[in-house]
Amino acid sequence: MIKDVDFLVLDDYGMSLTNYGKSKIFDVLNLRTGQNNIFTTNNTEKELMGDKDLSKIFSRMMKNTTTIKMSGEDYRLKSRKN
């Protein structure tokens, strides 16, 4: 089913991936090569390539991509009082 969707969004990618999670995301990226995907993350490039498996995943994720870096305050914390 994931292979055939027109547009896939993976939000907060790289939060905490178990070995099982790494395996599944690797499979999804292989299935989704050449299709429309968006990945959001708060992690740095270095964090996303933290080990050999993550580096392989990151390489596939970045193939034929446009990176858009955004910065700003966390909207969920705006109403928080200090």
Helix-strand blueprint:
Layout: E1 7-10, H1 19-31, E2 36-39, H2 45-48, H3 52-62
Parallel strand pairs: 1-2
Helix pairs in contact: 1-3
Commentary on this structure:
With 82 residues, the chain is of the alpha+beta class. It contains three helices and two strands, in the order βαβαα. The protein has a two-stranded parallel sheet with strand order 1-2. Helix 1 links the parallel strand 1 (7-10) and strand 2. The chain is globular.
Can you summarize this structure?
This protein has one domain. Helix 1 links the parallel strand 1 and strand 2. Strands 1-2 form a two-stranded parallel sheet.
The first-to-last residue Cα distance is 45 Å
Outline type: globular
Q: What is the number of strand segments?
A: 2
Order of helices and strands: EHEHH
Our count of helices gives 3
Keywords, separated by commas or semicolons:
single chain; two-stranded parallel ribbon; 10% strand; 2 strands; alpha+beta; 82 residues
